[in-house]
Amino acid sequence: MNIEQQAIDDKLATIFKVLSDPHRISILRILHENGHEMTCGEVGEQLNLAKSTVSYHFKALRKAGLTNTRKVGQTKMLSINETTFEQYLPHFFDVS
Amino acid sequence: MNIEQQAIDDKLATIFKVLSDPHRISILRILHENGHEMTCGEVGEQLNLAKSTVSYHFKALRKAGLTNTRKVGQTKMLSINETTFEQYLPHFFDVS
DNA sequence: ATATTAGTTCGATAATTATCGAACTAATTG
DNA sequence: CAATTAGTTCGATAATTATCGAACTAATAT
Fold this sequence. Notes:
alpha+beta, 3-stranded antiparallel sheet, DNA-binding, DNA-binding transcription factor activity (chains A, B), HTH arsR-type domain-containing protein (chains A, B)
């Protein structure tokens, strides 16, 4: 295994770690199906978790580069980071 | 989110949990690049881990349906479970 | 200026996990 | 049969993780 491949696999492993929680997959699907930015609150509403827990998951998604965050006043808008999905998880949202 | 999608996402989450360890991704790549069945020992040799640890990872991969196992005498032959990859991880091995 | 709202951070906790060496089973070889 | 080999299982351990409620910050509304 060459060194670049190892770097990719480490990146993949961190992405997969983030995806290893069903709640986080749900968040991504909610975002994807919605088709445009959503506030943290809107997404979190559907998950039935403490808001601190939701915040924890959001941070994990953002840190792994799976979502974009944009602050608008008091709220934060979340969206899918298409670039990361295209590069590392092509066809992720096609699986059904 | 409908109930079938939830079932798929739970399955995906368990697959991703297995893939969240760099060693297990390595195992899969070794198998894929080799192109045909390998013994546990052959794969494990390249990982520099205790054989009990390797066995632990193999079991996780098998349990998630990512590999096939075939016992031949004293040894076990591992191979990629193409069906699972086609269904849940299309283009996984193309990422580079 | 006070109260509300959106989200983050903190401390605690229970559960899961990756790893090892040792002991084991089953198959093969001498 | 005895020794070796391939792989599994077990017990222990250290590290990570998902979750909560409480306290916090920053922005908005009354």
